[in-house]
């Protein structure tokens, strides 16, 4: 069962979200109070090892905090630009004006119960985003192994060396807590030294894949 987090300053919305999605996902509800900061909220999110985060936009509506959901999204994507995030909001235009990737924005009225079919679509969307995230990780791992094997048996073309570099950078980006690739190894001419990181990369991938089965 995938673990997803939901952030909303309103207890009623948190309870509504939980009731709609508790059967399909392991739900972690993040409460907001006047001691909540962007920094300590980000720490709590990372500590939960989520598969996806869903967040309200207008977190400042109750006056408990002075920031909105876009501040949390920006911080997370700086560390991991590929992490699955969706935003639910009753203020779509306001969110569009403040969020770089407007594709993550969804109308919150989905949770009002008038159109249950839209809730089912959202459930499918959440699952698909997570599955695609892990699928890309798996495909990257497989391609790295193919390129490493080819390099060890023959040699890589320049475009393949660059591809291998990009794949390692991608895997590095999805693991913000434990950076594995020194900057000086990110140049194509240094790619042959990257094989020493293969085992570390596999361990990271195995950890990420196992999370969805916990």
Report on the structure:
This protein is an alpha/beta fold and 214 residues long. It folds into two domains: 3-114, Rossmann fold, CATH 3.40.50.2300; 131-211, no CATH class. Helix content is 49%, strand content 11%. It has seven helices and five strands, in the order E-H-E-H-E-H-E-H-E-H-H-H. It has helices at residues 11-21, 38-47, 69-79, 92-96, 116-153, 158-173, 198-211; strands spanning 3-7, 26-30, 52-56, 85-89, 105-107. The chain has a five-stranded parallel β-sheet with strand order 2-1-3-4-5, sandwiched between helices. Helix 5 crosses helix 6 and helix 5 (116-153) packs antiparallel against helix 7 (198-211). The longest helix has 38 residues, at 116-153. It is elongated and about 60 Å long.
Offer a quick outline of the entry:
With 214 residues, the chain is of the alpha/beta class. Helices cover 49% and strands 11% of the residues.
List low-pLDDT spans.
Answer: 179-193
- CATH superfamily of the largest domain, by name, is Response regulator
Largest sheet: 5 strands, parallel
> What is the 3D shape?
elongated
Search tags:
five-stranded parallel sheet, alpha/beta, elongated, 214 residues, Rossmann fold, 5 strands
